[in-house]
Specification:
The complex is a heterodimer. In chain A, the strands form two sheets. A three-stranded antiparallel sheet of chain A has the order 2-3-5. A two-stranded antiparallel sheet of chain A has the order 1-4. Chain A is of the alpha+beta class. Helix content of chain A is 31%, strand content 15%. By secondary structure, chain B is an alpha+beta fold. Chain B has two domains: 59 residues, no CATH class; 314 residues, Cytochrome-c3 Hydrogenase, chain B, CATH 1.10.645.10. Chain B is built from 18 helices and nine strands. Helix content of chain B is 48%, strand content 13%. Classes of the chains: A alpha+beta, B alpha+beta. The complex binds iron/sulfur cluster (SF4) (2 copies). The site of one iron/sulfur cluster has 14 residues of chain A, from helix 2. The site of one iron/sulfur cluster (SF4) has 13 residues of chain A, from helix 3.
Chain lengths: 165, 412
């Protein structure tokens, strides 16, 4: 026969378990918070640091002037910039120089955003894109062509409106 | 030939004979626990001598997650080092940033402006919360409270969303930098924080409803993993480990930094000295963290978030178009960086795990000579054997859990 004290503690235990069960039951009937990725995607914040983009001016000229500041600022050294001179016949950027080669090794990149901070003309920016998986290592070396793909229009518009201020 | 005998002497086996006699007449078994065991919170390997199921000796083997972070810092300029500090204790990046930033600032003789300091406090407390939530969720899961993981990670998700809003990244924020913070808080961040502060206490109540009086949770934690106050001191334990042993040692109170002295909060302690005590301490700390967040939000001062020193921080973007001097500073800072006066300094901050210290030696150049992190996880891990001795092997899970080590922080 259990004595009185035991009985009391049994009652306590059952109460505590019931209280816990009440919590889980309450949660069961509360709204679901799970995002069903990949069918459903949560929006990214404005400052999100995802895949890089090289921007252009409205007249089609590349912003990048090949100054290599981004490469110097990068803590992991994953940016390669080789600059060349603009000529009369071939004007790629408004400045004297442009980036002949611009590559980012996405496997090394830690998405710190220092390149974006360093760029004096806001040519390189980190966009909201984060799904970058691929099957071969070579594909992670983002070349200039890939980086020059246009930013999502809303992001570009936001950056422009900030510049005008 | 039994299976145990056949395995003895072969390299890499999990079980081998020690040849010693245990108290129950059987022989002691040496068991490799980890490094790839789901309940070791990372890649911790323990060599355990067992008498039956009782632990007679326990030796942690570390280094499986060594990343050479300290060495790497020597190759990076002062402002670049921030991104590396994010990555040792990967459950509390802003607190790591803070230790480093404070150390650099002290050598430079500058102090972050009041708004930056308040934002630092906000980020530190959010981080403490998210780190405790991971701890509570995983420890609960290991001891059979499955739903804890879901609930804790739900709230942690909110914190990560806030991290993303303010810094652009969910985990490796690099938000706190020498001289101030990365950028000012957005209005949306402050709104998110305000509603979080309102909701969080209710969630903590929920966790407590599930665990505090739960007989299974109590049976698994009360009296398990005793660490006496003397032992805690001798072994250099810090954070919830020492406060769970009844010693009110919290760097936010004992050596305040970043304006913590002006916030009203209590240091959570428990005299239980066991796993349950450490659990209570962390729960209380979560409540106190919400209190601090509330105060910080109420009196967030206005003003700049970075020191006004063009030799240390880049000029605002607008100036680049108008001022040649600004352009020169900008180029100089991003190519050569700034140099820090020669000397050494040690700064410690309170992370979710305890004393997170940063020791820096500068030789006056633009890169550190040496950076050393005093990580709470590494030191707390030493107490593991003291706590686990003569317990059952299953209790070790509870003990490792409440020690709350992060292996990235242990090995660095
Ligand atoms: S985000 Fe950071 S790591 Fe990546 S390319 Fe830019 S500077 Fe380098
Ligand atoms: S992206 Fe910007 S920082 Fe990098 S080379 Fe071009 S202009 Fe210079």
């Amino acid at each position: 026969m259990p004595d009185e004290k035991d009985q009391e503690s049994v009652i306590d235990d059952v109460t505590a378990l019931a209280k816990g069960l009440k919590t889980t039951l309450g949660e069961f009937f509360s709204p679901v918070v799970t995002t069903m990725y990949p069918e459903e995607k949560s929006p990214r914040a404005e400052r999100y640091r995802g895949r890089h983009y090289l921007r252009r001016y409205d007249n089609g000229l590349e912003r990048c002037i090949g100054c290599e500041l981004c490469a110097a600022a990068c803590p992991v050294g994953c940016i390669l910039v080789i600059a060349a001179e603009n000529t009369e016949e071939k004007q790629v950027s408004p400045g004297e120089r442009y980036a002949k080669t611009y590559e980012i090794n996405m496997l090394r990149c830690i998405f710190c955003g220092y390149c974006e901070d360093a760029c004096p003309v806001q040519a390189i920016v980190l966009g909201p894109e984060y799904e970058m998986s691929d099957v071969s290592r070579e594909k992670f070396i983002f070349t200039k062509e890939k980086l020059l793909e246009p930013l999502p229009p809303d992001v570009e518009a936001r950056l422009k409106s900030k510049e005008q201020k | 030939m039994s299976s145990t005998e056949s395995m003895a002497g072969t390299e890499g086996v999990t079980i081998s004979r020690t040849g010693q006699q245990g108290a129950f007449g059987g022989e002691l078994l040496t068991v490799n626990f980890g490094p790839h065991h789901p309940s070791t919170h990372g890649v911790l390997r323990l060599i355990v001598d067992l008498d039956g199921e009782q632990i007679k000796r326990l030796k942690p083997v570390i280094g499986y997650l060594h990343t050479g972070i300290e060495k790497q810092m020597e190759a990076l300029r002062w402002q670049q080092g921030v991104v590396v500090t994010d990555r040792h204790d990967y459950l509390s990046p802003p607190i790591n940033n803070l230790a480093y930033a404070l150390a650099v600032e002290r050598l430079m003789g500058v102090e972050a402006p009041p708004r930056a300091q308040a934002l630092r406090v906000i980020m530190s407390e959010l981080t403490r919360l998210s780190s405790h939530l991971v701890w509570l969720g995983t420890s609960g899961l290991e001891l059979g409270a499955m739903s804890m993981l879901m609930y804790c990670f739900r709230e942690r998700e909110t914190i990560l969303d806030m991290n993303e809003e303010i810094s652009g990244f969910r985990m490796h924020t690099s938000y706190i930098r020498p001289g101030g913070v990365m950028a000012d808080a957005t209005p949306r961040f402050l709104d998110m924080l305000a509603s979080f502060v309102k909701e969080m206490p209710g969630h903590v109540d929920e966790y407590e409803d599930l665990l505090t009086m739960n007989p299974i949770w109590r049976a698994r934690t009360i009296g398990i993993g005793r660490l006496s106050p003397e032992d805690a001191k001798v072994l250099g334990a810090s954070g919830p480990m020492i406060r769970g042993s009844g010693i009110a040692w919290d760097l936010r109170k004992t050596m305040p930094y970043s304006g913590y002295e002006s916030y009203d909060f209590e240091v959570a302690t428990s005299d239980a000295c066991d796993c349950y005590g450490r659990y209570l301490v962390r729960i209380k700390e979560m409540r106190e963290a919400v209190k601090i967040l509330d105060q910080a939000l109420q009196r967030l001062p206005d003003g700049p978030v970075n020191v006004d020193d063009r030799k240390m921080l880049p000029p605002p973007r607008e100036e680049l178009e108008t001022s040649m001097e600004a352009v020169i500073h900008h180029f100089k800072l991003f190519t050569e960086g700034y140099s820090v006066p020669a000397g050494d300094v040690y700064v410690a901050v309170e992370s979710g795990r305890g004393e997170n210290g940063c020791y820096i030696v500068s030789d006056g150049t633009h890169k550190p000579r040496r950076v050393k992190f005093r990580s709470a996880s590494f030191v707390n891990l030493q107490a593991l054997e003291r706590m686990a001795l003569n317990h059952m092997i299953a209790d070790m899970i509870a003990i490792i859990g409440t020690a709350d080590t992060v292996l990235g922080d242990v090995d660095r």
